[in-house]
Structures are given as structure tokens and as C-alpha cells.
Amino acid sequence: MTAGDTTNAPDAAQAQPTTTTPAPADRLETIRPYLPREFVARLVDQLTIGSNPQVVEIVSPLTGETIVELPQSGPGDVAHAFEKARDAQAAWAARPVGERAAVLRRLHDLLLDNTEHLLSLLQVETGKTRLHAFDEVGVAAATARHYAHASRGYLRPRRRLGVLPVLTKVTEYRHPKGVVGVITPWNYPLALAAMDILPALVAGNGVVHKPDNQTALSGVYLRQLAVQAGLPAELWQVVTGDGPVTGPAVVDHADYVAFTGSTRTGRQVAQQAAGRLIGCSLELGGKNAMIVFDDADLDKAVAGAIRACYTSAGQLCLSVERLYVHHAIYDQFVDRLVTEVKALKLGSKLDYSADVGSLTNTKQLETVTQQVEDARIKGAHVLAGGRRRPDIGPLFYEPTVLTDVAPGMTLYADETFGPVVSLYRYENEAEVLKAANDTRFGLNSSLWTRDTKRAKEAALRLHTGMVNINEAYASAFGSVAAPTGGMGDSGLGRRSGAEGIWRYTEVQTVARQTLLPMAPSLGLSPERYTKSLGSALRLLKTLRLR
User: Fold this and answer.
1) Residue 283 designated active-site
2) From CA 54, how far away is CA 106, in angstroms rounded?
3) DSSP class of 173
4) Helix (H) or strand (E) run with residue 203 in it
5) C-alpha count within 13 angstroms, C-beta hemisphere, residue 68
6) Phi, psi for 213 (deg, rounded to 5)
7) Would strands 400-403 and 420-426 be described as parallel, antiparallel, or unpaired?
8) Does an H or E element contain 506, and which?
9) 398 classed as catalytic
């Protein structure tokens, strides 16, 4: 066993009480060489904060070491941030779309040029593995590239058929909302910030961004790179603070709000936005299902399940928490899965040696621990994992596989948001699709089969905003030209693709009437006019003009 990592072996240390203290010194790799104090200070300087702010200590989940004494923005600072963003927004919106898009094109290259710095920062703040951190860099770069190339087409004026073809000229225009409030969570601080903020900017908006305190530096670093790429510095403001305090202040001043977080908080954001008659998009929780059909490639399905359940230690809105396997291959699948899960390496080193990283905060560790213990007490069986690992780091929890999970157990229906999956055996397709849909959530699902036709038909019967066929989540999430989002309690609206940028615009219809007015003319009486107009409408139907 090397310092900072271990194998998730069945004879590993037994569960110990929750702790926020660092692991033994000989097991730690200090974060400071990867996060110099001068670098942190430069990031903090970009925050919109008062002259004498309150500070909170932010520690790394990997080691318990202090990352930063993070200054906190007050409600007045939030108001000031919106003022500064509004002052810059009008000039930015007046610039051609091509100029705005060029900033994103340069940002794409800067993200890739600074990959190693970004990976280290993401690992230190979130506790995820380096490979899983790269998912964020890849998605951020892909988002910048997509909107750099596609925004002109998304935002261009569009001719529409007028009420009287030829006589009525109609054009649809899109204008920026103004200043958008973006509230991002701690689990994917770079990717989700990029997916919500970059289309808002290229659409001509200003942005006030409130990242979670735990991962604020990742969001600020993305802003720093955007400014380096040519973005006006005042246009993108970053405020900090506790969610219940600073979040409502952001919603109070925004012209539109993009929020990612819990369903409970999402409802509050939606209610507050509705009170101000502004729009909002919400990506919220999930209880995502993976279905393995009887004809699935077992090797690929098992590998996909590992990605689906344990990427970022399960702290991914799209991760799978319910795994349904056809009875004909259930035993074989479970044997392979459990063997692979037990072989996964937990680790805190800032390299590629670990398969699974840490949970990010004490609350998540407590939630995971309580849900697994509740299930165990009520009759569920633990096939792998099920234990905290303070010998590796303060917030590590073993990748866990459970069976016999039933209603009445908290993790049966509630989101766990950790490295835990429940296994279920099923008999037929109708049964499993009904079970997969039996949830108030509807974010992501995953299907595994060799039969493409079968997969497509099943996908259309699933009540989720995203369905991945023979992949865990990355096919949909990474396809930034297509919309992603949830149904039911998983949220409102969509990010990515056309809908991901159109949400940040006000659409305006300009109609110009030529030659004849929309009223009786040329000596026609009102009666003759209505008959003539009725005949014209019948002709338009016959000609199939829309």
C-alpha cells in the first residue's frame, strides 16, 4: 500500500466515527506545491467583496489542509456586483456576435493549455480523482468551442411566414436578458460554470456568478482565463457567501437565474424568481437508473456501471444509484461487478493512481453513511464497500454495492449522491421500465443492449431528460450541441445546445405590413373583407403554408 492510496479490499479497516481531521501525516501529499499562496491570492483578488469581509476557512477534502481563508460577499456586495456588470453589459451586447464568440474560441485553447493547473485545483477543492477532474476540463473546453462556432447561427435574425405571405414581412430577433445570475454547486465547479456562463456571455449578457464556497477558486480561475481571452473584466462578477444568504440576493437583482443544486433549494429559487416575473433554469437532483438487458455485452456493461456509479465518488447529478439487471444474466453480472468494485483503488494523491476519490464535504459523508446503515439495519445486504476510510483521508467512503434494498429504506427513493448503488433483478422489459420510471426524479438513465432498435424504443418510454445507450452518462452530457436537463423533480429548462443559449435571450417579433393593411381596403365592405380573408386562409391550408 502506497502513501495516499489503497485498494478497496474486503479486509480493509472497519468503519470508524466520522472525522474531519486529516489522515496520518505519512499518508498525505501536501496540497501547497500544487496551490501556491500567491496563486490563491490572485484568485481571491477577483471576488466582489467589501473592505472588511467575513472569512470562512475552506479545507481540502483530500487531506484536511486549509485551501484558503475565503472572504464572503454581503448583500451590498451582490448589489454592487450587478451594478458593475450592468455598466459593462450594454457595450458588450453592442459588439458583433463574432467578436464575442472569438473570446470563447481563445478560452478553449487557454483551458487546454492550463489543464494541469486546473486538474490540481479541481482535485484539491473537490477530492475527485485526476481522471474525473479531466471530465470537467473537457466539457468546459467543448462548451467554449461549441458556442464559439454555433452562437452566430443560434442568435441570427430569422425570417418567419407572415399572416399574409408576401404582404407581411416577419423577422424574429433575439436580445440579451441583461445581467444573469448563475449559482453553481461544489461537485462540478468548472464544467457547470462553463455550461451556464459561457452561453450567457456570448448571447450578450453580463453575469454575476455565485459559486459554492468549497469550490469558489475553480470558478474564479475560469473567469481569469476568460478575461485573459479578451472578456471585459467587469462583465463577469464573482460573489461568495453561504447559499441561503447570498443566493437570494443574487435572485433579487438578476434578470434571469441559472441554478444547479438540490431540489429543495431549486423550488425556493423558482418561487422567488416567479415573484419577480423573471425566468429561471434549474438542474436539480436525480435517482438515476441503469438497465442491463439480457443481450448486453457484460464486459462493457460492468465497466459502464463502474463509471456510472463511482465517477467523482458518485457526486454527479447524472450518476446511477439504481441498477436493474435481467434475471438471466443477473448472477454473472453481479459477480463481475462486485469483483471489479472491490479492486477499485481509493486515493488522495494528485496523480492518476486512484480510481475513486473522496467525498467533498462532511454532510455528504454523513448522508452516505446514514443511508447505508439504515438500509443494512432494515435488511439490505452489502456486497462490497459500506465503510468510511479515514485512514486514507477525512472524507473517504468505499465504493458500495447493495442488494435487497426496499421501500422504507431512505436510499430506496432518496438521492444519495455518493459511491453507492442498489442492485435489482427483473424479469421483463415492461416491468423494468415501470420500475425505472417509479421516481419523482427524471434526469438521466442508461440502457445496455446489443439491439439498437430495442434500445431506442425503450429510451422513448423512459421519463428522463437524458438517456444514454451503452454508455453511463458521458454521451449525453458531453454532447454540448444537444440540450441536457431533467423532468419532474430534476428541474426546469435545459442547458447546452440551442436551448442552452436561447434561455438567456428575449425573443422579439418585428412584423412589417406592405401594400395592404390588415383591415378592409380597396373599397371592400367589412362583409366582403371577412369572406375574402376566409378564402385566403383556406388557400393557405391547401398550400400547406405554415
Assistant:
1) yes
2) 36
3) E
4) none
5) 25
6) -55, -40
7) parallel
8) strand 505-513
9) no
Q: What is the pLDDT of residues 198-241, one digit of tens each?
A: 999 999 999 999 999 999 999 999 999 999 999 999 999 999 99
User: Among candidates 1, 82, 101, which has minimal Cα distance to 354?
Assistant: 1
pLDDT digits (tens, 9 = 90+) for 34-56: 889 899 999 999 999 988 889 99
Q: Does residue 126 have a pLDDT over 90?
A: yes
Listed range (10-19, 249-258, 269-278, 368-377) with the worst mean pLDDT: 10-19
Select from 44, 48, 62 the least CA-distant residue to 349. 62
Residue 20 pLDDT exceeds 50: no
Q: Are 399 and 310 in contact (CB under 8 A)?
A: yes
pLDDT score at 30: 80
Q: Is the pLDDT of residue 282 over 90?
A: yes
- For 344, the grid coordinates are 477499485
Helix (H, G, I), strand (E, B) or coil at 276: helix
Burial of 322 (0-12, 13-18, 19+ CB in 10 A): buried
Kindly report the pTM of this predicted structure.
0.93
* Residue 242, φ and ψ in degrees, nearest 5: -65, 135
From 283, 340, 398, 415, active-site residue: 283
- DSSP-derived secondary structure letter, 164: S
**Cell numbers for 58:** 475552506
Amino acid at 141: A
Closest CA to 8 of 450, 439, 443, 355: 355
* Separation between Cα atoms, residue 306 and residue 203, nearest integer Å: 38
**Residue 451 is placed in which grid cell?**
439491439
Backbone angles phi, psi at 78, to 5 degrees: -65, -45
Q: Are 172 and 507 in contact (CB under 8 A)?
A: yes
What are the grid coordinates assigned to 19, written together?
472525522
Residue whose entry in the numeric block shows the C-alpha cell 440540450: 483
Query: Among 13-17, 157-161, 304-308, 374-378, whose mean pLDDT is lowest?
Result: 13-17
DSSP string, 88-107: HHHHHHHS-HHHHHHHHHHH
Q: What is the per-residue pLDDT for 51? A: 81
Look-up of cell digits 471585459: 232
User: Which residue of the set 234, 309, 317, 340 is catalytic?
Assistant: 317
- What is residue 29's predicted lDDT score, i.e. its pLDDT? 58
3-state secondary structure 258-269: EEECCHHHHHHH
pLDDT > 70: percent of the chain: 95
